[in-house]
Write a structure and sequence with these properties.
By secondary structure, this protein is α/β, with parallel strands linked by helices. It contains 17 helices and 10 strands. The structure holds (3S,4R)-3-hydroxy-2-oxopiperidin-4-yl beta-D-xylopyranoside.
Length: 363
């Protein structure tokens, strides 16, 4: 089958059962350079289970309430969910002491109803903090108390319902120095230890993660995160996992040593998760960019499947209809597995293919 006809089939096929029937047999083995040939029509979550991982997506709660296709696709395809925004501090506590858990609780209930786990996102970050925290002149000691309360209160509210918490997010600069944030300034460089201890106090059962972008490849940032978590674990601070966000761009190419990098973190005894995968591209899309995108997803998923300890792979939104990318990266988009009409792109087939192979290999 030619590249073009394979591609057209991938675009026209629906995700729904009947429209997928016969696809695997209809597609001959791909030649070198073709999009990976689907070897199954099964939904991602049905493949991820025997492959030994959770397959997740970030969830936009507005879309979940308003868009039936969006909701049903999540139910069918994913076994883990992350709140794209509604577990962030600015949503949970817009005014001091005024808590709003409504949307976050709705997501937890949705997950429970569909046998999904929840990744909690996020306890400590420098973005999406409520204005009342950012804009008042608190002393460092006051800020420490405020952060402590926030972490313990939030983790406690969701205790028993969160599989993995992103406790601390994006605390390093690209050069491996500590990011200059309100938390570094108030608590000092050893605040990592405090925030993980507090999270454990709030929810003793959740696995506690450090999460960041550009950790996938070797470099000063990944090295700094490695040293930090190694040091924390040596000191008995409860860090259980490392989250590789996985925000990639097709225009940059993809790293080939992700597995080796994951493995060094796994060797510390850490769980590994890919937490926010997406592969954006300069618009407009074309067949080459879309094929390259599928390689980007593969560059994250295959290492995860080959690394013992990597137990979760989450995409940061699964449809281009609701992706954060166009709003944050000028002229870029189309970063998700499905297009704006919920049609699978070559990347969806690539993910399916990797999961199916891993499931088969573990059998
Ligand atoms: C993004 C959301 O997708 C947007 O809707 C929001 O406006 C800003 O935050 N790293 C993270 C996520 O850890 O929380 C960010 O999510 C994307 C980058």
């Amino acid at each position: 089958m030619s590249k073009q006809s394979t591609f057209v089939m991938l675009l026209v096929m629906g995700l729904g059962g009947a429209s997928l029937a016969g696809l695997a047999t209809a597609l001959a083995d791909g030649h070198h350079g073709d999009p990976p040939t689907p070897i199954t029509q099964r939904p991602l979550r049905d493949l991820a289970h025997p492959a030994g991982i959770r397959i997740g997506t970030a969830v936009d709660m507005t879309a979940l309430a308003a868009d039936q296709t969006y909701r049903e696709t999540i139910e069918r395809e994913f076994s883990s969910v992350t709140a794209e925004n509604v577990m962030k501090w600015e949503t949970l506590e817009p005014e001091p002491g005024v808590f709003d858990y409504q949307q976050a609780d709705a997501l937890v209930a949705f997950a429970g109803a569909h046998h999904m786990v929840v990744r909690g996102h996020v306890l400590v970050w420098h973005n999406q903090i409520p204005a009342w925290v950012n804009e008042q002149d608190f002393t460092p000691a006051e800020l420490r108390d405020i952060l402590r309360e926030h972490i313990i209160e939030t983790a406690h509210h969701f205790r028993g319902k969160i599989q993995q918490w992103d406790v601390l997010n994006e605390a390093f600069n690209e050069d491996g120095t500590l990011r200059d944030t309100i938390w570094l300034r108030a608590l000092g460089p050893d605040y990592f230890a405090d925030v993980f201890r507090w999270a454990r106090m709030g929810d003793p059962g959740a696995r506690l993660f450090y999460n960041d972008f550009n950790l996938e490849f070797f470099g000063p940032k990944s090295d700094a995160a490695f040293s930090a978590v190694q040091d924390l674990r040596r000191r008995g601070i409860p860090v259980d996992g490392i989250g590789f966000q996985g925000h990639l761009g097709a225009q940059f190419g993809f790293d080939t040593r992700v597995q080796e990098n994951m493995q060094r973190f796994a060797n510390l005894g850490l769980e590994i998760a890919v937490t926010e995968a997406d592969v954006r591209m300069p618009l407009p899309t074309d067949v080459f960019k879309l094929q390259s995108q599928s390689q980007g997803y593969h560059s994250l998923l295959q290492p995860c499947l080959l690394t013992r300890g990597c137990n979760s792979f989450t995409v940061w939104g699964y449809t281009d209809k609701y992706s954060w990318v166009p709003g944050f990266f000028d002229g870029e988009g189309a970063a998700c597995l499905l297009d704006e009409s919920f049609q699978p792109k070559p990347a969806y087939a690539a993910v399916q293919h990797d999961l199916a192979l891993a499931a088969r290999a573990r059998h």
